[in-house]
Each structure stands twice: as structure tokens, then as C-alpha cells.
Amino acid sequence: MPVVTLSSDPLLGREIAVKAATALGYDCVDREILKAVADRYDVPETDLHKALDESPSPFGISSNHHARYLAYIEEATLAVLLKDNVVCRGLAAHLYVRGVSHVLKIRILPDPQKLAGEISSGKTSSFEKVSTLLKRRERFRRRWSLDAYRVDETDPSVYDMVISLTRIDPDEAVKTIVETTGYRKFKPMTYSLKCLKDKALASRVRVALIDQFPDARVEADGSSVVVQTKALEREKQKRTEVIKKLAGEFPEVAAVEVQILPDIFRKAAESFR
Amino acid sequence: MAGKLEILLLDDEPIVGKRLKPALTKIGCDVEVFEDPRKALDRIHRKTFDIVVTDIRMEEIDGLEILEHVLRKSPRTKVIMITGYAMMEVAREAMEKGAYDFISKPFTPDDLRKVIAKAAQALGSPIDSETADPEEPSEPAETR
After folding, report:
1. Cis peptide bond prior to B106, omega within 30° of 0
2. B95 to chain A: which residues are within 8 Å by CB?
3. Which domain holds residue B70?
4. Which of A32-41, A53-62, A99-108, B128-137 has the lowest mean pLDDT?
5. Fold assignment, A3-186
6. What is the DSSP code (8-state) at residue B135?
7. Fewer Cβ close by (within 10 Å): the C or N end of chain A?
8. Rounded to two decimals, what is the model's pTM?
């Protein structure tokens, strides 16, 4: 059966995700897994939430921490998705499972009128204020997703289906999601399962490298792994050796290719000294 | 279905049939190999196969057309698509049109045997995909 990812405003989507999972007989996975991730990597759980909600900034979470926390979350989420029969929400999975044909990626758009009640918690909040707030949040999510994954999560083409709660009520949305999972095109196949396994392996290797190589990009194809990172010419050999050693420690990895790109900023900085 | 599993294998690269035919014969399949999609189609119209394994990207007739022909003639036949140019859109299109499975190249003979065994199970004629020669090389059999 296909895996379902739900992307929505943080205040929305949980009810739909839980109901869809129940109807499908799936597990519903959301930010509750962050506690286990925090324990495993010995990082504050609140920082993992921040990484999902905030962009790196000089006054908030640093770029390196942001990348590291997202790598931990991605690794943990992909491990869950590999188990199949999952509805996943709130972990930005739609941004790192692109290209996997048996993952049904859904975006839920809020109904500003209904959301007004939830945001104001009983206080009066005008439709215009909520609409402005939602637009601001959307701009923020666009920037966040571009910073983190170079993908604009507000772009409808990222998704297989976009459901507007202004026109479709949550129960109808659940019904639509459940029906869509039955389409043949979303059926898991050898190729799509391999794509997901490759992404999961790449994420594990990236986590192993991230302390020493925070900029490392990792791709896996079966038992072959390609790592791309930046370095100065004199560092090339040493870095290649370290990366090959770390990535080679995974039993599934048979070959490691390291691509070192010139670090032009550090090179320029050194030339001014 | 009685006796051996009847398989048609179509790929315009001769090496593919050459490597995969013995691998499938070893697990008790009767395999006919074609490099020309027109000849394969002609054979498909004259004989009903249990499983058709076809490349997608070929000159003149592509694998998706083969898939449609096969299923029009025999809806019970399991069609397995193989390609060196796998992409999500093509994979989804193939599955939507009724493909049983979709494999990206390169793959090993053992990878294909596992998929064939799964298809045989679905056809109600399970085979043992483990009966292959353990000395057989496990490197990918395919090129793009």
C-alpha cells in the first residue's frame, strides 16, 4: 500500500491524518517521534521542533545545527516510512521523499474562517487578520523549505493532491485520501521501494558524516554511495579518506565515491590573509 | 496454467536476454527472448504467456505499448517493466496501465528472479527463486 504524507499548517491536519490512518489501518506518524530522535542523538527535543519550524538565523538556530537536526529527523522519518503503511505528518517528509512513486503527497490548505476560531482561542479574530496571518505563514514556510531542502513547499506541483478545506470538509478529505491510495499508480513496486531504501541509506550515511562534514550531500544507489562536499585543495585527500572510512562502515555500502568541490569562499578568505 | 512458467523476455540489448535467460531457466521457467518488439508482439498475439518482461525504451514500439497489447490479449498475464531510465512519472504510468512491477536497471539476475517468483505466486503457481546456482555472479546484468 502507498505511504501518505500530509503537509499543512501546524494547527491543521492532525485530525485528518489520524482519521485517514485509522480508515486505512495505517500508523499515524508525526512529531511524537521527535522525543526518540532527541534521546538517540542526545539533543534537546525543543531544538528539533525549532528546526522544523524556524529558518536558521543569527539570533536563533545556527545553520549547522539546523542542518544537523533536520538530518536526524529525516533519517528517523525515512526509517519509519520504510516500514510501509504509514500516514506521516509534520516532519517535512514531502520534501525528502520526492521521486518515490508510492508516496502519495498531499497538501491541506486551511479554511481561514474555521482557522480563525482555533487561532484566537475564543477571542474575536477577524477573517482579514487570519488571512493576513496565513499569508505571512505561507511566505515563511516557502523561505524555510527553500533554505532547508531547496524546494518551495507552497508550490502545488510538489504534491499529488491539494485539498482546500474551504471547499472540502475534513471528513470528505479523509474519504478522498483513502480512495486515492487505492489508485494503481501509487502502488509500491520494486523500483519505488528501492528509491525509498536508497534515500534511507543516504540519510543514515549523512548523519554519520554530519559532525565533520555539515555541508555533505549524499546519494545512494543500491550499495553505492556518492558523497559531495566542499574543501580546499590541500584538504582533498584527507577528507576523501575520512569520508570513505565513515561511509564504508555501513554494511550495506560496498562502494563510496567522494566528490570534492572547491571551497571558493574559504579559498578567497585565505588569499586575503 | 500447467507445467513450466511461460515467460517472454523483450529487450533490444542482446546482452540482457543472454544474461537473464539462463538465470530464469534455472528456476524452471520456459523463456523466449526477443530483441525486436515487432517480432515479440507477433509472438504475443499467437501465444499467451504467463509473464512478459519488457524494456520500456525501445525503437519503434515502446514497452508501454507492449504492456497494453499484452493486457488486451491476456489480462491475467503479469507484465514486468524494466528500464535504465526510471523516473517516477513513467513508473506511475506503467503501474496505472496495469504493469505488475517495475524494475530499474542495473539489476542482478537474482533481483529479477525474486520479482518473477512474486508474479508466479500471484498467478497461483509458486516457484522457488532460491534454486539458482550459488556460484552465479551477483553483479548487475544490465546496462542502459
Report:
1. yes
2. 101, 184-187, 189
3. 5-124
4. B128-137
5. Rossmann fold (3.40.50)
6. T
7. C
8. 0.90
